[in-house]
Amino acid sequence: MTTTQQQHAAELLHSLHRPGSPLVLPNAWDAAGARIVADCGAAAVATTSAGVSWSLGAPDGDELDRERALAVVARVAAAVTVPVTADIESGYAADPAGVGRTVTGVLTAGAVGVNIEDAAPAGTAPLRPVDEQCARIRAARKAADAAGVRLFVNARTDVFLRAAGDPADRLAETLRRASAYRAAGADGVFVPGVVDTGTIAALVDGIDGPVNVLVGPGAPPVATLAGLGVARVSLGSALAEAAYGLVRRAATEALRSGSYDSLAGAIGYGELNALLA
């Protein structure tokens, strides 16, 4: 991808974040999945750090090294013609300078967006301090500016997902963090762990920028989220979880009963092979 092509892809990704007409992202974790998602009509492709980690034999949660993660981003970006945004967890780095190097690698891999989360490393407080997270966001923005690409920085805050602090204070804390992250250079704010429509409406009303929510079984449908003003809807690890659930069901069925009914509905060999040709 040339610099001009990447700049165009980045601008396109920005334009797809429309409150009331959300960008829907069924997250992929390999080239085949990315090609399938794009073939289904997705306007962009997002990776899922959980799916990527699991496919490489590592647990999710900053356990994967930068090089292996970015290699997957490169394969996904090469497999599709739509913009790609990469889930880079908390940046695959211990400090802001390292986050900047990760973002440079993301851009080299061909992606034009990133998710950066404020979850703290295992064994520490649930979330990073706001000023520390802002420094990481600024480093991501600086690296993208240096490359001349308008990277879409999606700042994820895990206040609700990690059940951080007093339940009565979580909305206010999320809004506080969102405001700080936007000021630090984030383009959008991702708030996973929220499915209550009243809370989602309050987030949309209180955040000056595109709001991203995480969905799966039990979450409101896209049409409802659109009506609330959500600009981005992510399936996150849900597709990977469903796919691995099928692996377990089909393997259990074959090993215990000797039947294969769980495999019904699969994409045929020829169709899948042709899709990747």
From TrEMBL:
Species this protein is from: Micromonospora citrea
Gene3D superfamilies: 6.10.250.2750, Phosphoenolpyruvate-binding domains (3.20.20.60)
Keywords: Lyase
InterPro entries, sorted: ICL/PEPM (IPR039556), Pyrv/PenolPyrv_kinase-like_dom (IPR015813), Pyrv_kinase-like_dom_sf (IPR040442)
Source superkingdom: Bacteria
A GO term, aspect molecular function: lyase activity
Protein name stated in the entry: 2-Methylisocitrate lyase, PEP mutase family
Record CDD domains: ICL_PEPM (cd00377)
SUPFAM superfamilies linked to this entry: Phosphoenolpyruvate/pyruvate domain
